[in-house]
Amino acid sequence: MEMASTNRIHPAKPLGEQRWEPGTFALRDAWFPLAHSPSLKSEPLFRMIHSAPIHLWREDGVVRATEYHPAEHGSRPAMPLADADGDYPVIERYGHIWVWYGDPKHADPVVLPDIPFLPEHRSQPRFSYGVNFFHCTYELVLENILDLTHIDFVHGNYAGTSESDGDSISFESTSETVTMIRTIRNKPTSQYQRDVLGVTAKYQDQTAFTHVFIRSGVCFLHSHYSAAPSIPLMQSNTPESRTLTRANYVFGIQQTDSKAYAQAWPRTARFIAEQDEMVLNPQNPQYFGQSFRPDCSTRFDAAGLHFRQRYNALAERQRAGDYGYARDMAEGSDLAEILKVKRLTPRR
Amino acid sequence: MSRSWQVVALSSEVADEPFAVQIGGTGYALFRDGDGMCRAVLDRCAHRRAPLSLGRVKDGLIQCPYHGWAFDGANGACRAIPNLGTNQKIPAAYKVPALAVSERDGWIAVAAEAHSEWTGHDCSDEAEGRVTLAFPAPLLIDALLDSPTAFLDVRGLTIFDDHPLGDPVPAQGGIVARYAAAPARLVRQEKVLADFPFTLSIAAPAGEGIVDIDLTAAQGVSAGRVSAAIVARDDRLADIVWRSSALSGTPRFREAPQAAALVRAKRYISAARDAVRQTKAA
């Protein structure tokens, strides 16, 4: 497998000299997609971000997000992350309810992720979205998503084995995001594609993309196949606590002409999540309370290590009181081009 | 991990798949290599810390379920990383800690290093098992000496904790305590027993080792034995790995209600060990 790094900003020091301690710091000042829009009604939903409680509901058509249950709202002092009325800033977009976790004065719709493959002002059909839970801190979920080598192992029945005629990975990053692209030539067609999709080609080419937002955990995933259809996925990976990540997911079904595939593929989300949960759950406690012993890595872990560096850099800035967004975030490539999807909404 | 040998599993528990054990708060994965030899490595992949015990054994190596890194049980070295070409060398530092393993007489013992040979512990068995109790291991051994029914019962047998047969005595570096026992049906028939057909002897080692619980009938005829290795999973939980032979009833280790009373009364600070110390001093 070849490796090429096109990362634009090189961190100051290699990760080996830094500790990697996931679940020990709460990155803030970001929008977190806490619920699918259709699930929000007048009865409050309960969510958490880094153990901070959030109650969501619709009141006369307006979305409210508060620390306390509506029955208690106004009777208890507001916390620093809510405004003077005890409300969190909230936005409804791309079929999700987004809540700002951080200083309410800094809440800015400009830094809401641009999601080119989802309609901006309506939700997707019910069959195309859902939720999974991972019993681990969200940083491990993001590492899992950026680590494409585990796919051959953990998800081999859906993604095929690791055999191929050529396998290359490239990645790039900004201060807020990490993107990885893996290109594989002549990979054996997976059992799922043969049995369920009826793909007859024994081998095909694949290009897989992952894009993660470090603060919020939001990620996009998309795999292109030369002989099989594909649709992109957005997953929230909300850090509820250091032992629980809520993964609201939705598929960009408009990206395929195959109605059958658009209906079938979202059904695999739960099973694929269970495969990851099988390793993430027992992996999580191994990162807590352990003596510092660096993980061993190879060049295939470059994207994940890069994520760790970017994460540590962000945490260091925030510990120093700097919660702002660096200018490089606005300089990134168009995500529609990176993910190779047709854009449903204008680029923000 | 202790330098002295400690029994942690039965031979029958380690077969084709890795087997997880906890010793002193640390997890280890036991597995059989290509020659069928039992190996033990830290249950944590050197790559991204996934438990190796959830993986599989491939070509005599234990393979991580997450990314397929495979480790040699003899020395913990990483021997295979998927996607790496055969001409690419794996750094020598890429390894997991490996324990010394000795398998004898149906037991598997481990030590931090093999400074001496483990002598084994002869025991034929007709039944075997493993149970985890929420009780610290050292205290459990002491409590077994002081009040065996707090943790042990044998179907069809009544053990009299309040009828010791003599004082506890030192023996072979450890302690032996004896109690009266009788068939349960006899106890149901008689209100008070004047004589007891059986003696239950509990021989606890001085340090880490196997507790032998022997049932003896009149004239020293053996009526069965339970051998139990008591492993401290951590400071609150103990694994009991046991084998029994010739007992008429199946032994069962569990924490009886009086175990908590023992703790409250602090009797678990080994009346038996105190008695032995006093005997030695005299």
- Broad shape of chain B: elongated
Strand content of chain B: 35-45%
> Largest interface, counted with CB-CB under 8 A?
A-B, 22 and 20 residues
Quick one: how many beta strands of chain B? 20
By secondary-structure content and strand pairing, the structural class of chain B works out as mainly beta
Distance N terminus to C terminus of chain A? 35 Å
The helix tally of chain B amounts to 4
What is the secondary structure topology, with strand pairs?
The complex is a heterodimer of chains A (348) and B (282).
Chain A (H helix, E strand, L loop, with lengths): L1 E4 L24 E7 L8 E5 L2 E8 L2 E5 L23 E4 L2 E6 L27 E6 L3 H9 L2 H6 L1 H4 L6 E8 L3 E12 L2 H5 L7 E11 L5 E7 L7 E3 L2 E4 L2 E8 L7 H6 L4 H15 L18 H18 L15 H5 L9
Helix pairs in contact in A: 1-7
Chain B lengths: L5 E5 L8 E5 L2 E7 L5 E5 L13 E3 L2 E3 L6 E2 L6 E3 L17 E7 L2 E5 L15 E7 L3 H10 L5 E3 L2 E8 L4 E3 L2 E10 H6 L8 E7 L5 E7 L5 E11 L5 E8 L5 E3 L3 H9 L5 H11 L1
Antiparallel strand pairs in B: 1-10, 2-3, 3-4, 4-9, 5-6, 6-7, 7-8, 9-10, 11-19, 12-20, 13-15, 14-15, 15-16, 16-17, 17-18, 18-19
Give a verbal description of the structure:
Chain A contains eight helices and 15 strands. By secondary structure, chain A is α+β, with helices and mostly antiparallel strands. Residues 1-14 of chain A have low confidence and may be disordered. By secondary structure, chain B is mainly beta. Helices cover 13% and strands 40% of the residues of chain B. Chain B has helices spanning 137-146, 184-189, 257-265, 271-281; strands spanning 6-10, 19-23, 26-32, 38-42, 56-58, 61-63, 70-71, 78-80, 98-104, 107-111, 127-133, 152-154, 157-164, 169-171, 174-183, 198-204, 210-216, 222-232, 238-245, 251-253. In chain B, the strands form four sheets. In chain B, strands 11, 13, 14, 15, 16, 17, 18 and 19 form an eight-stranded antiparallel β-sheet that branches. Chain B has a six-stranded antiparallel β-sheet with strand order 1-10-9-4-3-2, with no helix packed on it. Chain B is elongated, with a radius of gyration of 22 Å. Chain A binds chain B through residues 1, 143, 147, 149-150, 152-154, 162, 167, 278-279, 282-283, 286-287, 295-298, 300-301, and chain B through 44, 46-51, 54, 65-68, 78, 81-84, 91, 93-94.
